[in-house]
Specification:
Chain lengths: 296, 399
């Protein structure tokens, strides 16, 4: 691919789990950005596995402050660069779903609303994986987590996932998109597009988690692809609030296949949870309709 | 013509005088969120930016938490930064302030002191800033508007010193300093800028030299990082003294260094306090001295770093020390009182009295101070010194 860095700015030897979707995503993201960048990360999986003192995996400047303030720290860095007259260095936040959907939401809203020239990338593994698989508001309905366990009175997470794309769009920013690691070219193009446009941009990347979702480490990419092809994770692109691109699907993979490939949903095979599966299928039907996912 | 770099001298509101001084220093990034009684400072800075008088990036944050985090980002990129807050806002900044101290990033804050909720109250006490005392933050408490102005001129030089590199807070009492009008000397911009020097940290985020900030450490290294924060704050004491002396030389004003003493040399009774009440206590001391009482005052200017040696030395000759506290740690007494007491342990020092007074703006007059002294003297002469701190002037009917 043209315009991509050959270098790997996320050094090997970090502490990510085998098959970690996040490490794959970040390597691709940094290839698309190059090295004239300052990356800010909130507390989370990425922070933990890349930054043991004296063993940093980051080959670009990287700042970790707290769990809920990465967008504000990035805002301060961006303002400082402008003050110094250095508009060429990119500022990028790479943070997990807990930091993005929950604890850092206010800070993120401020950053988007003020329209800082920052690309915010959420790596979404659909729960607080770093602290032991507790649910976040990114956790999908029906998933068993350590704080939404399955029991006689629980089928796992009871609520549907929060829609972060809609949240980002509400700030009238120029660029909002979603991507998946199974489609690396698409992911890297979206990173570049987000950087090329001035002002704040939001990119959502689905990163399957072997531990939290319950699958084998060699299945990460396949699961990412399956989520897209089952209509669970639509890959879309908005510019100036308009839906400009959608990755079309020839034939929807069955939701059952997606759910059946992960331990977090294994209880849903029981007949008593038919209504939960119906609700998940309804979410897919809405995605198909909203984004026009199917090729015709 | 003054031999000092006076810009003008006029009657001014405290907040405006401080904002003008920050304007003269022109921090590259200003992160703000409104809260009473701090708002006049940031409003005035907004006007300076809107009129093109200063070139700072002024960011209206979504919370005090984000405002402080914006300072974190700016400082990590090597740019001087500023914010102001009060009360609940300072508590919301707390996590970030610990983080700035731990990663050695020197943003400057004006804290306009105000009580903490509940009950909600917008008047002055020191509970807000005292609650930040364990963070590694430099804290200087000022007595009046002129000292607020002069301390803001001094503070960047102290915080940004390569041997320090810590966040710093100038604590000024809400309303009594922030909203009062007094004759104030403002200083020429170039003199102020020169005194402050430039922020040139040894490390910053820069793509030309990639560094990792905020790394993870285990038990094998964390104590050493904490120790380095502690020793940096200890080293700050000298820097505060040096800045005060240099300021006296170049600007002609002196408000004390880490402490200020007032009639302490021969005093049998020494009152210890911080903030605007110090002015009231000076008046009370004058009146008591006129009546022949050997009383003095020890003003704590730098609460962090804590001026332990100066406190020990100055209190050593007194029979009684009376600490007037505008904050307390529930069940453990006044916070300043506890620290003074801890520093007198194993010393052949004075008997210590600790009053919690002036909470949530409850007025302290010279006669209140004289009443406190009288009460303490009586207890001392009857050898019935209270075990812990005493809440001054409690209204029993409300209990």
């Amino acid at each position: 691919m043209k315009g991509l860095a050959r270098e790997n700015y996320l050094a090997p030897g970090h502490n990510a789990c085998p098959g970690c979707g996040v490490s794959i995503a970040v390597r691709l993201i940094l290839r698309a950005i190059g090295n004239n960048v300052i990356v800010v990360s909130p507390t989370g999986c990425l922070e933990t596995f890349t930054s043991p003192y004296g063993m940093s995996a980051w080959e670009v400047p990287w700042v970790h402050s707290l769990f809920e303030n990465a967008p504000a720290v990035a805002s301060g860095i961006e303002a400082a660069l402008q003050y110094k007259g250095n508009p060429d260095t990119q500022v990028v936040v790479i943070g997990g779903d807990g930091a993005t959907f929950d604890i850092g939401l206010g800070s993120l809203s401020g950053m988007l609303e003020r329209n800082h020239n920052i690309l915010y990338i959420c790596y979404d593994n659909e729960a607080y994986m770093n602290t032991g698989i507790q649910r976040s508001s990114a956790t999908p309905m029906g998933a068993s987590t350590s704080t939404t366990p399955v029991g006689s009175k629980s089928y796992g997470e009871a609520l549907p996932k929060k829609n972060m794309l809609t949240f980002a769009l509400a700030h009238n920013i120029e660029y909002v998109a979603s991507a998946a690691i199974a489609y690396p070219r698409d992911l890297m193009n979206k990173v570049k597009r987000g950087l090329d446009l001035k002002g704040a941009a939001y990119l959502h990347v689905i990163t399957p988690c072997t531990l939290g979702w319950g699958f084998e480490p060699d299945e990460t990419i396949e699961l990412s692809r399956l989520g897209v092809q089952a209509g669970i994770f639509p890959l879309v692109e908005y510019e100036n609030g308009e839906l400009t691109r959608v990755r079309k699907i020839k034939e929807l993979k069955p939701v059952k296949e997606y759910l059946g490939s992960q331990k977090r949903f294994s209880h849903l095979e029981e007949a008593e949870y038919e209504n939960v599966k119906e609700s998940i299928k309804e979410i897919v039907r809405q995605n198909v309709k909203k984004y026009g996912l199917l090729e015709r | 013509m003054s031999k000092y770099p006076v810009k003008n001298r006029e009657i001014m509101q405290g907040s405006i005088a401080v904002a003008e001084t920050i304007g003269a220093l022109e921090p590259g990034v200003i992160g703000v969120y409104p809260i009473t009684p701090q708002t006049h400072i940031v409003e005035h800075l907004a006007r300076l930016v809107a009129n093109g008088a200063i070139n700072s990036r002024y960011i209206n944050a979504d919370s005090e938490f984000s405002a402080a985090s914006i300072l974190y980002g700016a400082a990590s990129a090597g740019v001087r930064s500023y914010s102001a807050s009060s009360s609940q806002g300072l508590l919301l900044m707390t996590e970030v302030i610990f983080n700035m101290a731990g990663t050695r990033l020197p943003g400057v804050f004006s804290a306009v002191n105000r009580s903490l909720s509940p009950p909600i109250n917008i008047q002055v006490d020191h509970q807000d800033t005292m609650t930040l005392r364990d963070s590694g933050l430099i804290q200087i408490y000022v007595e009046n508007i002129q000292e607020a102005v002069d301390t803001h001129v001094q503070i960047y030089r102290i915080a940004e010193d390569r041997e320090v590199l810590l966040p710093a807070m100038v604590c000024m009492d809400g309303w009594i300093i922030s909203h009062a009008y007094e004759p104030v000397t403002l200083w020429q911009e170039d003199a102020v800028k020169e005194f402050a020097g430039s922020y040139d940290p040894p490390f910053k985020v820069d793509p030309r030299k990639p560094l990792t900030y905020g790394a993870l450490t285990d038990d094998d290294k964390i104590t050493e990082f904490k120790y380095m924060v502690d020793s940096a704050l200890c080293r700050t004491e000298n820097k505060i003294v040096q800045a005060a002396e240099l300021f006296r030389e170049e600007f002609g004003n002196f408000h004390g260094d880490v402490v200020e003493k007032y009639y302490t040399d021969d005093a049998k009774i020494i009152i210890v306090a911080m903030g605007s009440v110090v002015g009231t206590i000076k008046e009370a001391v004058d009146r008591m001295r006129a009546g022949g009482k050997k009383v003095g005052l020890l003003k704590i200017r730098s609460f962090r770093p804590f001026p332990a040696a100066a406190v020990r030395e100055l209190l050593s000759g007194a029979e009684m020390a009376i600490v007037v506290d505008r904050s307390f740690s529930a069940s453990a007494g006044g916070i300043l009182g506890s620290e003074i007491k801890a520093n007198l342990y194993h010393q052949n020092g004075p008997v210590l009295f600790n009053y919690i007074a002036g909470i949530g703006g409850r007025e302290l007059y010279p006669h209140s101070i004289m009443e406190i002294v009288q009460e303490s003297e009586t207890a001392f002469s009857k050898d019935c010194v209270p075990d812990g701190a005493v809440f001054f002037n409690l209204n029993e009917e409300l209990l």
